[in-house]
Amino acid sequence: MNRMLELRARWTLVTGASSGLGQELARSIARDQGGHVLLVARRRDKLEALAEELRSRHGVQAACIVADLSRPEDVERVYTEATQGRDVHAVILNAGVTYWGEALKLDWSAFQAMLDTNVTSMVRLSTLFARHFVERRTEGGLLLVSSVAAFIPVPYQAAYSGTKAFITSYGQALAQEVRAQGVSVTVFAPGGIATELLEKSGMSNRFKAGDLGMMSAEECAAHALRAFVHRKELSVPGLINQTLALAARLLPRGFLAQRTAAMYRP
Ligand SMILES: NC(=O)c1ccc[n+]([C@@H]2O[C@H](COP(=O)([O-])OP(=O)(O)OC[C@H]3O[C@@H](n4cnc5c(N)ncnc54)[C@H](OP(=O)(O)O)[C@@H]3O)[C@@H](O)[C@H]2O)c1
Q1: Averaged over 16-35, what is the pLDDT?
Q2: Does 3 reside within a domain?
Q3: Does residue 70 line the site of ligand 1, with CB under 6 A?
Q4: Spatial CB neighbours of 153, under 8 Å, sequence gap ≥ 6
Q5: Is residue 26 part of a domain?
Q6: Cα 216 to Cα 78, 117, 155, 190, 222, distances in angstroms
Q7: pLDDT, tens digit, for every residue of 214-253?
Q8: CA distance 144 to 174
Q9: CB of 122 within 8 A of CB of 78?
Q10: Number of domains in the chain
Q11: How far is the centre of ligand 1, averaged over its atoms, from the C-alpha of 195 (Å)?
């Protein structure tokens, strides 16, 4: 396998590209790597505006697939449309949703949509694309966006932190299975990022841009891309998040959950 993942003049698919981290990842791929981008999310207007911006500013190719990744039929269509007449070389599975509040008050359909988006769509798309890369011997790469919430049980984000724990474990295991076949899998686990996700979940009342450890989407995207092109298998950006990840390995999980509950209690 080539040591570095080459994105220049190649197609990278980015899910959740209509805002936040995904939008900045797509911008950075076009601006800093000269890569073509295939943008996926539900909001067509946001995707089309970004595609136009990247084509005109950076001279790359950009295309959009409007899809709801909580729907299995849309997930299958993303793979089919993405690979029709196009050599997809890299895939960033970043789309995700959260719920902040008491687990007992989480609406069942909202839980299922979160599980389908954060877990099922990631497993399905990573499987389809990893197989695609193996069969074509393209030495492609996959990036799965997780969270430091994967390392610590987070009360009041119980289901969300569970989805990220799944993705981290799954992604690291998949990386071992496919590396000998020339495919890299990178799990990226950021801490707080100032994005729409905080507004939508109500967490922006508690966690804000400028707080200790909070990153901008642009800064976080730069960390993620560095890890991705270097084919790192697990990457945690920033000293504070790395300290948290280390503490999670050293301290009892019950103690950590108790401390975290105090921070996250609405
Ligand atoms: N913000 C944080 O503090 C933080 C911390 C750690 C990890 N993360 C992770 O980082 C990733 C990106 O989050 P963000 O902070 O950038 O949030 P964001 O600004 O809310 O972006 C989420 C993206 O996911 C897309 N998305 C959500 N549900 C979707 C669905 N059913 N189908 C298709 N696309 C869907 C959204 O697009 P549409 O609404 O247009 O569909 C949007 O583009 C997530 O996996 C999140 O868990 C975030």
Answers
A1: 98
A2: no
A3: yes
A4: 161, 253, 256, 257, 260
A5: yes
A6: 28, 23, 24, 11, 10
A7: 999 999 999 999 999 999 999 999 999 999 999 999 999 9
A8: 11
A9: no
A10: 1
A11: 8
pLDDT band of residue 130 (cuts 50, 70, 90) is very high
Ligand 1 pocket check for 153: Cβ under 6 Å: no
Is residue 262 packed enough to be buried (19+ CB in 10 Å), middle (13-18) or exposed (0-12)? exposed
Single-letter amino acid code for the residue at 143 = L
Map tokens 């990153």 to a residue: 215
Rounded (5°) CA angle 178-183-189: 90
Largest CA distance in the chain: 52
In a domain, 6, yes or no: no
Instruction: Report, as residue numbers or ranges, the catalytic residues.
Output: 160
Atom of ligand 1 nearest to the CA of 145: 45
Q: In whole angstroms, what is the distance from residue 12 CA to residue 87 CA?
A: 9
Structure tokens at 42: 């539900």
Q: 73 — phi, psi (to 5°)?
A: -65, -35
43 touches ligand 1 (CB under 6 Å)? yes
Output the residue whose Cα is nearest ligand 1's atom 47: 96
CATH number at residue 76: 3.40.50.720
Give residue 193's pLDDT: 96
Pick from 219, 221, 195, 220: nearest CA to 208: 195
Q: Which ligand 1 atom lies nearest to the CA of residue 116?
A: 31
Q: Is 41 in the pocket of ligand 1 (CB under 6 A)?
A: yes
Domain of 160, in residue numbers: 11-264
Which residue do the tokens 């877990």 mark?
119
Q: Which is it for the CA torsion 185, 191, 197, 201, positive or negative?
A: positive
Q: Which amino acid is at 154?
A: V
Considering the domain boundaries, does residue 1 fall inside one? Answer: no
Pocket test for ligand 1, best of 193, 201, 205 (most atoms within 8 A of CB): 193
